Amino acid sequence: MIASQFIDINNFQRAWEKVADKRGCAGVDGETISSFAGNQTVNIYQLMNSVADGSYQPLPCKQVIIPKKNGSQRELKIPTVRDRIVQQALLNVISPLMESKFSPVSFAYRPNLSYINAVEKIADYRDMGYVWVLDADIVKFFDNIDHHRLLQQVRLHIDNPGILCLIKSWISVGVETREGLILPQKGIPQGAVISPILANIYLHEFDEIISASDLEIVRYADDFLVLSTSQERIAIAKSEVIDLLDAMGLEINTEKTQFTSFERGFRFLGHGFLSDAIFPVDTNKAKLRSAIENNRGERRTTKTRKKKVLSEAISKEESSLELAEAANSITNGFAGLGYENIRYLHKPYFAETITEKPLQTEEDDSPFQKNIWNQEMAAIYLIEQGTNIYKDYQRFIIHVSEKPKLEVQIREVQQIIVFGNIQLSTSVIQTCFKEQIPVIFLSQTGTYHGHLWSEKSIHLDNQLVQAERRNDDLFRFSISRAVVLGKLLNSKQLLMRFNRRRKIGKVEEAIYGINQDIDALNYVDNLDTLRGYEGIAAARYFPAFGNLITNRKFSFSQRFRQPPTDEINSLLSFGYTLLYNNVLSFIITEGLSPYIGHFHYGDKQKTYLAFDLMEEFRSPIVDSLVLNIINHSLFKPKDFDIVETTGGVYLSQTARRVFLKQFESRMNEEISHPDLISQVTYRHAIQLQIRRYRRCLLSNDIYESFLRAD
User: Fold this and answer.
1) Strand locations in 127-174, DSSP E?
2) Lowest mean pLDDT: which of 1-5, 104-108, 689-693?
3) Cβ atoms within 10 Å of 706's Cβ, excluding its own
4) Which pLDDT belongs to residue 626?
5) Any idea what DSSP says for residue 701?
6) Residue 374 CB coordination number (10 Å)
7) Does the N-terminal peptide bond of residue 348 adopt cis geometry, omega within 30 degrees of 0?
8) Which alpha helices (DSSP H) does 334-472 contain, by range?
9) Pairing of strands 271-274, 266-268
10) How far apart (Å, rounded) are the C-alpha atoms in residues 499 and 624?
11) CA dihedral 261, 266, 267, 269 (to 10 degrees)
């Protein structure tokens, strides 16, 4: 069963996409992501077949040395692009299997878990009375993993000879250095796709043994805490841990290992723990001391017991007194907040949860950011005016005045949407260029201003073909007809779906008319006539759309764009802008020029291709979302503001956060797409459609529009 899931073309396609999305460097063979992508269909098929027939052989890893801030160096061992794809294909299959078996006390390298969850688990154990702590980590863990024991542990869960041979070849293939090829006797390559899950498999028994005793453990990779209810028991635990690790060929780092307690205080995963407090600690000792000294004169005498959270590391040499003063400094900074708000602080990745508060909450009174991000998202929405975003190591830090900072791992971001007066630091802009993260600039009300992207996204050969095809009337017409056909079919389906039970006569008339327009497309032979039928269908569609609104507080009869003159037009315009941003970003990512379109045109330079390719997604993503939001009364008329000078109607900032959250949920909704057997999100479907267009552009393939399955 596992072998058939592994050796599957759709699985290898997904693996390739994940590897490509990470934009890693070439391996020892010099093959880059771009060069593999040049003939990816054939390359993926040949790679999968080589694994299936046993001819696949991995190449040595490439040694990459990364300097660390403390002056030491970190060695990464990078497999080739092809080896990374095969490893990712296996990971796709074994990860769900192992997730059902891994201990709940292990938090590193696991989907939907982070160091924040580990910190919360520690707080839970503390509240259960586990207040004595053994703080330890493992000496050079990845480098000391015993190959024989690792394969034994893998075999307990995956007893497939072929897969075991693959894993053995990956961990023993060696690393190419300046001195030549080095073949390891132990250890796994830190930098390989498969290594993190192998590391967790290796320590799974360790987690289980500790958890089955009268002790508790929280582990994040090779860093862990063992907790006990008594001081005597935690002292004995150290020798037990040493013996367990010794049997696995590992040892603890005695210099970094310590006995401590919550009363005394300790640091773990960038957090400070002291009594009931959990708070951020600073990497800069001078900065920390300065903050403590400045706070001494302002410190309140009232003692507060509040949980606090954050994330930066402080050196172990800082005293418990300074740790306590840092905790008090932070606690005083948030004095007056209720317990519910403090629980919110305990989950900094989930800033969008503020939208669950009543919409009438005053903006300026809120102690939280209004910027939107969570781990399910691919985009950061920066909507609170005066926000600053800067880079710290591998994170974007989003900061607004005195409000809690929001931290986002850079690798998790695909797009940044900027509303109005937001400050991006130079390092953020440089990182976006380097990591090819598009940044979209909008007005405070959501009007598109412009965007920036990296020159790495420019694929000159593709754009030369685009320019050449721009003069091919037959090609332009065939693309345009497919786009219009997809738009009309999806529009008709939305009307049918929402009118299935209501049986509104005017909606049924519109459906009949749009059917006639769809049939007429078979006889159209020029762009002007095609545009005429698209306009006729829109004139039928939008009044019928208005008839499907059941919330009597709102009405809609006609589409007005600039400016939107009522609440429904406002939501449609805002939703179309967000959809446009996603389409534009993927066009850029796929190495295409967004300016060379086919159906849309004009004298000014605009992103006409984005306008073209978003058409088929308007009704399934935005229109249906607006209907659901309005009919379920998520908004009231007072949630909209009117600009007196233009008469335009726009969502208030608070309500805009609610819409953004709903829009992201829609983009992450899973649907069917004919290019893949498995379900995909709407966001992935957009990318697949743009890849369809690119294949059509570069070959003689026929472009087929996206059709939502009912």
Assistant:
1) 132-137
2) 1-5
3) 25
4) 94
5) P
6) 15
7) no
8) 339-345, 426-435, 460-469
9) antiparallel
10) 12
11) 0
pLDDT over 90, % of the chain: 30
Q: Which amino acid is at 410?
A: I
Coil, helix or strand at residue 51: helix
Residue carrying structure tokens 């001081």: 231
150 close to 304: Cβ distance less than 8 angstroms: no
The mean per-residue pLDDT over the stretch 109-118 comes to: 86
pTM over 0.70: no
Amino acid identity for residue 215 in this structure: L
CA–CA gap between residue 619 and residue 538 (Å, rounded): 11
Give the pLDDT confidence of 129-144 residue by residue, as tens digits: 999 999 988 999 999 9
* Total Cβ atoms within 10 A of residue 414: 19
Q: Name the DSSP class of 4.
A: H
Q: What is the DSSP string of 314-366?
A: --TTS-HHHHHHHHHHHHHHTTT--HHHHHHHT-TT-GGGGGGS-TTS-TTT-
Residue 111 makes CB contacts below 8 A (sequence gap 6+) with 95, 99
At 439, list the tokens.
């940044």
Torsion of the alpha carbons at 252, 253, 256 and 257, rounded to the nearest 10:
30
Summarised one tens digit per residue, pLDDT across range 45-63 is 999 999 988 899 999 998 8
Q: How far is CA 10 from CA 52, 116, 678, in A?
A: 14, 33, 8
CA distances from 181 to 59, 66, 80, 173 (A): 11, 19, 15, 9
How many of the other CB atoms lie within 10 Å of CB of 640?
18
Residue 411, helix vs strand vs coil: helix
Task: Work out the end-to-end distance of the chain between its first and last CA atoms, rounded to an integer number of angstroms.
Answer: 31
Query: Which residue from 162, 189, 164 is spatially nearest to 174, judged by alpha carbons?
Result: 189
Look at residues 384, 394, 368 and name the one whose alpha carbon lies nearest to residue 423. Answer: 384
How far apart CA 432 and CA 416 sit, in angstroms, is 9
Tokens of 101: 């078996």
Q: What is the CB-side half-sphere exposure of residue 112 using CA atoms within 13 A?
A: 5
Query: Which residue has 């400045």 as its token pair?
Result: 294
* 70's tokens: 């403390």
With 90 as the cut, is the pLDDT of residue 405 above it? Answer: no
| Alpha carbons within 13 A on the beta-carbon side of 101 | 17
Distance separating alpha carbons of residues 503 and 511, to the nearest angstrom: 11
Q: What value does the mean pLDDT of the chain take?
A: 80
Q: Are strands 61-67 and 175-177 parallel, antiparallel or unpaired?
A: parallel
Q: What is the pLDDT of residues 540-569, one digit of tens each?
A: 999 999 999 999 898 888 888 778 888 999
The residue whose two tokens read 């130079």 is 426
What is the C-alpha to C-alpha distance for residues 500 and 227, in angstroms, rounded to an integer? Answer: 59
- Residue type, position 405, single letter: K
In sequence order, the 6+-apart residues with CB closer than 8 A to the CB of 164 are 151, 154, 155, 158
Pairing, β 277-280 against β 406-409: unpaired
Which among 595, 585, 610 has a CA at the least distance from the CA of 435? 585
Give all strands (DSSP E) within 68-210, no chain letters.
73-78, 132-137, 175-177, 180-182
* Cβ-based neighbour number of residue 440 at 10 Å: 24
Q: For position 281, what pLDDT does the model report?
A: 63
CA 75 to each of CA 64, 189, 192, 392: distance values in angstroms, whole numbers, following the listed order: 6, 9, 12, 21
Comparing C-alpha atoms, which of 702, 488, 513 is closest to residue 615? Answer: 488
Length of the chain: 710
DSSP state, 54?
A: T
